[in-house]
Amino acid sequence: MTDTIAALDRLDALRAALEGVALPLAVAGADAARDARKAAVRQIDDYIQPRLAHLDAPLLAVVGGSTGAGKSTLVNALVGHPVTRTGVIRPTTRQPILLHSPADAAWFASSRILPGLSRITGVVREPPSHEAGDDPDAALVGSVVLVADDRVPRELAILDAPDVDSIADENRQLAAQLLAAADLWLFCTTANRYADAVPWRLLDDAAARDITVGVVLGRVPPGAEAEVEADLRQMLAARGLGTAPVFVVTESPLDERGMLPASAAAAVGGWLQGIAGDRAERARVAGRTLAGAVERLAVTARAVAEARDEQLVVVRDLRATVRTAHDDAAERVHEATRDGVLLRGEVLARWQDFVGTSDVFRTVESWYSRTRDRVVAWFQGRPAPAVEVEHEIESGLLAVMVDEAGRAASDAWSRVRQGAVGRQLTSGIDLAHPSPDLSERASRLVREWQQGLIELITEQAAGKRTKARVMSLGLNVITVALMVVVFGSTGGLTGAELAIAGGSAVVGQKLLETIFGEDAVRRLAAQARDDLDARVRALMDAEAARWDALLEPVERGTTADALRDRAAELETAMRSVGAASPTSREVQRSDLVEAEVLDDDGEPPLEGEADEVRELERPSRWAPPPVLPRARPDHDDEAGR
Question: Which Pfam families does the protein's record reference (predicted)?
């Protein structure tokens, strides 16, 4: 019991992990992975969890097959009277009919298995087979009709499923769901259809799940039984189903009720009776199917994990594309503020007004021999429109950042949308332009950087003498000089601009050196540049982060490694469950099982209970089939089975 509880916990964890996997991108294989994940979660709910929680519950045998394979005819023959509709109009089966012993009613009236299907309680009638059951109703395709019949053996129910190749999509999906919820299959095919592709896809799936399968080969022409059976058995062996029993039903006329001769389904009925009446065989079938389903679930989980990895690789590539575009923009701003470009035009004109460029360059060779006091006096004696220079530098820097951010937005947009995934991701969204408030934020960046320069200078001028020199010139003058030094490398200028900008930088640097010293000026310039670069990168990072609203939802959710871990943990837990003796588990069936299936008053649980009782015109000579909700299999008495 402890091992089973642990396995159920691991199963719940894997289910939650599967539910949490995000696969929104239309990458190759994503559709198949989404379908596989959905089918895996549904099988956990429909079969694996309820079977693991109730290892001793009655078996469910699902009768499946292609259109016109005679599934309903076989089911009617197994119980000896028409309970499910036959005919030539397709589809004839829309609501699956689940036949069970009255003693097993409580197991199937609750939502223990197939919890997503509503229950309709039916009772037996004996019209001709083409009128059996209800008229096909597409609106009720999500329901299952429960029919209690004394002729169904205890401990085994039979479910007539829709066609696996039905013309109705919902029928095909329901057929696949029901087959996935089965403990064993009765797979019906015919002498002229057994080599079709659709049946073999399902039989391959059965082999992969290691489910117990009985193959019913119907409508075999008299005299051809041995030849057709031999060919079918050879095909089964090649697909790993060599041990599956094959039941040959020779083509024969139906009686007035549309029923096969009683002998036609005798072998199939005997096989089912043998399983139902043998406790050890029931445990073997249930354990084998459960183990195969869990193994297949783990394989599916790993395949979904691979698809999850693929989604994250695509997201990382898209994020790198966006990041590269904005990193390149930050680098271009860095180059523009390093090569002297910002010191052209109006900035140069204002700087000339500030330092008296003509006089300076006539005396530039003798500048180095001047004393610090004469330099200061020269600057003090010249009216300095520092605010104008500062404004021009701010305007130039702002224009460069806004222009490069716009270019980065356009580059990222065009690169992302080159692929189908990018176009899907950006559908209905426009990130081709920078943020509407970019100019305002960039302007604030420049002002905050300038304020940072003032703080650097103030920190550097800690001594009384240095502080006095700074105050004598004014912080604005010193700040402008530092900005000119930062922007004064002249790689981007030529001709007269080269001479003016380069000379301007020298003037600014020598001014700062007379106040702070050469080493201190180098540190100040490096700190100022690093601070500006960091702020520009932060601005571009914020622009790139606009893509997070598209990319982060893909990145959220279960990781691929977590999904693989949950699958491995379930496999480990299931090995412990499998190590326990099936016979011991069945002997331990106790009042705890009864308490889970029935409520305190001995009635079937209300949750998932059949929500409609539909009269099926039973013949007057029959009494209503008894419903014994408290009855459960008596494992101490196998007599009569």
Answer: Dynamin_N (PF00350)
Q: How far apart are CA 430 and CA 437, in angstroms?
A: 15
Q: Looking at the predicted structure, is the pLDDT value of residue 587 above 80?
A: no
Whether residue 49 is predicted with pLDDT greater than 50 in this model: the reply is: yes
Report d(CA 66, CA 76) in Å as an integer.
17
| Residue pair 449/531 in contact by the 8 Å Cβ criterion | yes
The residue whose two tokens read 């308490």 is 595
Tokens (6 digits) for 35 = 């379908």
Q: What is the largest CA-CA distance in the chain?
A: 130
- The per-residue pLDDT for 499 is 41
User: Is the pLDDT assigned to residue 623 strictly greater than 90?
Assistant: no
**Is residue 584's pLDDT more than 50?**
no
Burial class (CB in 10 A: 0-12, 13-18, 19+), 328: middle
Handedness of CA 296, 300, 301, 303 (dihedral sign): positive
Q: Contact 109/158 with Cβ under 8 angstroms?
A: no
> pLDDT tens digits, residue range 286-328?
999 999 999 999 999 999 999 999 999 999 999 999 999 999 9
pLDDT of residue 165: 83
Give dist(CA 246, CA 237) in Å, integer. Answer: 12
Order of all β-strands in the sheet with 97-100: 246-250, 212-220, 184-190, 59-65, 156-160, 97-100, 143-148, 118-122, 612-614
Nearest-CA neighbor of 63 among 287, 205, 207, 214?
Answer: 214
Q: How many CB atoms lie within 10 A of CB 62?
A: 25
Flag whether pLDDT at 70 surpasses 70. Answer: yes
Q: Which amino acid does the sequence have at 428?
A: G
pLDDT tens for residues 437-450?
A: 999 999 999 999 98
Show me where the domains of the chain are located: 60-277, 319-353+385-490+503-555
Strand, coil or helix: 63: strand
- First-to-last C-alpha distance (Å) of the chain: 28
Asked if the model's pLDDT at residue 133 lies above 60, the reply is: no
Contact assessment for residue 442 and residue 543, using Cβ atoms and an 8 Å cutoff: no
The DSSP annotation for 446-513 comes to: HHHHHHHHHHHHHHH--SHHHHHHHHHH-HHHHHHHHHHHHH---TT--HHHHHHHHHHHHHHHHHHH
- Residue 555 sits at the vertex; the CA angle it makes with 549 and 557, to the nearest 5 degrees, is 115
Residue keyed to tokens 């036959």: 86
Q: Which of 15-19, 482-486, 509-513 has the lowest mean pLDDT?
A: 509-513
Number of other CB atoms surrounding residue 363 within 10 Å: 12
Residues 6+ apart with CB under 8 A from 285: 59, 183, 184, 212, 275
**Angle between the N-to-C axes of helices 346-355 and 386-416, in degrees from 0 to 180, rounded to the nearest 10:** 160
Distance CA 564, CA 562 (A): 5
